[in-house]
Amino acid sequence: MPFPIILSAPSGGGKTTIAHALLRQRSDLGYSISCTTRPARPNEVDGKDYFFLTADEFDGRQAAGEFAEWAHVHGRRYGTLRGEVDRLLASGRHVLMDIDVQGAAQFAASFPESVLIFLVPPSAEVLRQRLSGRMTESAEALRCRLQTSRDELRAVSAYQYVVVNDRLDEAVRQVSAIIDAEALRRVRQPDISSRVDALVAELDRILVEV
Ligand code: ADP
Ligand code: 5GP
Q: Which H helix or E strand runs over 31?
């Protein structure tokens, strides 16, 4: 049974990079494209990285109840479309989501089968270097994001899994292992009772013979 997988991390923690690597490696995953009122970065494509909305468009979708969760992050609004999540789950794929700590709590309340994974950087200095090395933020925005990171790190206790994003390939391997293990949880295997029933019936037949 497919399930939502929430990746959260301080800004620059590697959510986008890890999500892209997982999507390249695994065909059983789909990515939930969020809505945001922040402007697109030069390398970002509308409808692929985000649905970039005006404040009015965001209001409209919010009023129509289209968001499974939404939050103010770094002075902008971000939200997950319920329709996007339902569409991906209906296609049989697990839904990979890159959402902030406020959104993760809201979303998990409506989708309790969600798997919550928090990515932490190996050090604060590495986080600063990665965020400034990405060259997407002004000095002021960089400071705002690092400030938010301080508070977001405290939310780690709401997450089931924590992965240190030190070496990228190792972090991707660990997130992938979490997904594999979660898929094997008994409650996520609806046909397990009939499978066990069939095994018991077969054993009964064998026991008559031996
Ligand atoms: P987020 O989506 O969490 O804000 P990104 O995925 O954009 O973070 O990562 C921030 C920057 O750090 C990017 O330039 C990315 O290439 C780099 N990065 C991410 N993970 C690693 C890693 N394990 N090692 C080195 N650089 C990384
Ligand atoms: P960025 O602007 O760097 O792409 O994302 C900034 C923050 O917004 C990150 O913490 C990211 O996880 C969060 N975010 C992205 N999409 C969503 C969403 O749909 N809902 C919520 N609540 N946060 C989101």
A: strand 29-31
Q: How many angstroms separate the alpha carbon of residue 47 from the centre of ligand 2?
A: 15
Six-digit token string for 184: 């094997």
Give how far Cα 83 sits from Cα of 32, 63, 65, 87, 105, Å: 10, 15, 11, 6, 19
Atom of ligand 2 nearest to the CA of 103: 22
Q: Which ligand is nearest to the CA of 141?
A: 2
pLDDT in the model for residue 82: 97
Sequence length of the chain is 210
pLDDT tens for each residue of 97-156: 999 999 999 999 999 999 999 999 999 999 999 999 988 888 999 999 999 999 999 999
Q: What pLDDT shows up at residue 136?
A: 85
Instruction: Please give the distance, rounded to the nearest whole angstrom, from the Cα atom of residue 137 to the centre of ligand 2.
Output: 15
Provide the CA 52 distance to its chain's centre, in angstroms.
19
pLDDT in tens, 165-189: 999 999 999 999 999 999 999 999 9
- Cβ within 8 Å of residue 165, ≥6 positions away: 9, 13, 14, 18, 119, 120, 121, 122, 171
